[in-house]
Amino acid sequence: MTADSLIITSVSGRGIPLRGNDIDTDRIIPARYLRCVTFDGLGEHAFEDDRRGLKAKNQIHSFENPDFQGASILFVDKNFGCGSSREHAPQALMRWGIKAILGVSFAEIFFGNCVSLGIPCVTVDEATAQKLFQAVESNPSANWTLDLNTLQISGTINETVIMPAGPQSQFQSGQWNPMNELLSHLPEVDEVAAHLPYVSGRW
Amino acid sequence: MKQNLYNKVFDRHVVSRLSSGQYQVLIGLHLVHEVTSPQAFALLRERRLKVRFPNRSFATVDHIIPTDSKERHRPLQDSLAEEMLQAIEKNTKDFGVSYFGPESGKQGIVHVIGPELGLTQPGMTIACGDSHTSTHGAFGSLAFGIGTSQVADILATQTMSLGRLKVRKIQVDGKLSPGVYAKDVILAIIRKLGVNGGVGYAYEYCGEVISNFSMEERMTLCNMSIEGGARIGYVNPDETTFEYLKGRPYSPQGADWDKAVEYWRSIASDADATFDDVVTLDGSSLAPHVTWGITPGQSVAVDENIPTVASFSESEKPLIREALEYMDLQDGQKIEGLPVNVVFIGSCTNGRISDFQEAARVVKGHKVAPGVKALVVPGSEAVDKAAKALGLHEVFREAGFEWREPGCSMCLAMNPDKLKGREICASTSNRNFKGRQGSPAGRTLLMSPIMAAAAAVTGKVSDARKVFGLK
């Protein structure tokens, strides 16, 4: 695939709200489902223990709620995706159908893993997040568009979102998965390696 | 001058500026385990790519390996685990990467074997598909966890795309009291700065307490940087670092040694180095810490009460309530005296020889409380061997602990060591997330090995200083 065909400048779809700070990678995909050599089938186990836990209390998790099935933009709170570096977490969300995530903040490794998978993560302040939660919850069938050029989320309300310039340009240029560009610099890699004593063996 | 270690090491590893504005950074040491690598090797096969620097990647098996010797024979009873084990054996063989399997004498938790083999050295960039890679920062390297896509990037190019972090200096002054360890220091740091306080930062740990730490204590400290949101945590290399590394299998030898030490000194932060932020802590006033909630930031000193919901801001209250409900605790109650069902001493945080020496020293002459299951799991085959040479396994067995084979064990639920139902575990591991230890309702209390030993012999959360008369 060429970089052009990988350009991501907007994501559209219905929203799914998931309130709560510090939702960690073990909750996104419980570790027992990491016993695998492919990422296939992870989607159905996303939030499995949280879903079961709420069901036992006669409550319903967003990922279980029929209103939000088929949604593609996930709305979250603070420090989403903290914990493990396992790419299984964003893979599980992606395979469930999530194409973009909007939150107050993200754990760093999770954010980077999402970039590598072509899932833009954007942030808003807490007050805006609350407004967006209410908007998504009160009208689950509404369509939302996240525009990465104008950094706007629009649906039943419109808000400005934040994304660092580096990742923004990775999505806009279709270079969110950097492997091809990394491969194009192999001669320079050898040059840097030759100057690092512990790599070259020449102290 | 005025440069800190982070920026010196980062600059030396920059290969190019990518079109996104990110840096292409050479990763000098790539550590590989069975959970986050199979999909990366599959991608290389799909794209017909080779491993670019096969001698800069080293693999082992740790997460899925059973720690009961009766369950380690092949094929493993868990067919999924066996498939993963076969995959890493085949992948490393096909791609020419060194693999330290069970019985090799070098198998163990990836963050225990890297340092003990001398693979981990100052001034390196180190990555592994595992967030606790921050451990290796103890040597003055930039070490961090990555996802599987980046494992593939590194295998194929020995580089990855990275942004530059800010650097926060965390200075811990004074002297720790008896019974207070590196684990308590890092739990106190995370409590103070929050589980997301380190996002966007590398942490440079310094000060009298850190200078006095052994390498193993520095590893415990750096290991949990990621629990405070910091992908990287490091300590500047010093004589303690060089002393530890001298003579290890992969350390520079002979005439190279002196040159290496000179190089390592040169990459340390300059005396007048600048930082984006500075935080100081008084180590002298710290007490042993215990987590009471579902994030590593939710801890108290053992002689404190669990905080009240009212003491938190409105936005923090929902998580505090959720934690109290999950843990079945009342706000304001004492943490001391809380009964435990299981005790786990091990993991990449506290599974090294000094952890077992300290715990064995206090356990001697005591018995595990009735009804408590207590596991001691060495972090590597080398730690197991060293502990046995000192007779530590006998001390633990005599006291009623089980002495196991090396692996990640009960830190996470990927092997047969798991909590059952709503069991509460006093654990020396690094994460107290909901369900982390294998039961969706299981509860974890993070603490130091000494505090875990005190919980084992009393059957409840106890102040190790009182139980063992540490003064």
List keywords for this structure.
heterodimer; A: 203 residues; Aconitase, domain 4; B: 471 residues; alpha/beta; Aconitase, Domain 2
List the helices and strands and how they pair.
The complex is a heterodimer of chains A (203) and B (471).
Chain A: E1 10-18, H1 25-28, H2 48-56, E2 73-76, H3 88-96, E3 100-103, H4 108-117, E4 121-123, H5 126-138, E5 143-147, E6 152-154, E7 158-160, H6 165-173, H7 179-183, H8 186-195, H9 197-200
Parallel strand pairs in A: 1-2, 2-3, 3-4
Antiparallel strand pairs in A: 1-5, 5-6, 6-7
Helix pairs in contact in A: 3-4
Chain B: H1 5-13, E1 14-17, E2 23-26, E3 29-32, H2 38-46, E4 57-60, H3 79-95, E5 98-100, H4 110-117, E6 125-128, E7 142-145, H5 148-157, E8 159-162, E9 166-173, H6 182-193, E10 201-206, H7 208-212, H8 215-223, E11 232-235, H9 239-245, H10 255-266, E12 277-282, E13 289-291, E14 299-301, H11 317-327, E15 342-345, H12 347-350, H13 353-363, E16 373-376, H14 381-389, H15 392-399, E17 402-403, E18 424-427, E19 443-446, H16 449-458, H17 464-467
Parallel strand pairs in B: 3-4, 3-6, 4-5, 6-7, 9-10, 9-12, 10-11, 15-16, 15-18, 16-17, 18-19
Antiparallel strand pairs in B: 1-2, 2-8, 13-14
Helix pairs in contact in B: 2-5, 6-8, 13-15, 13-16
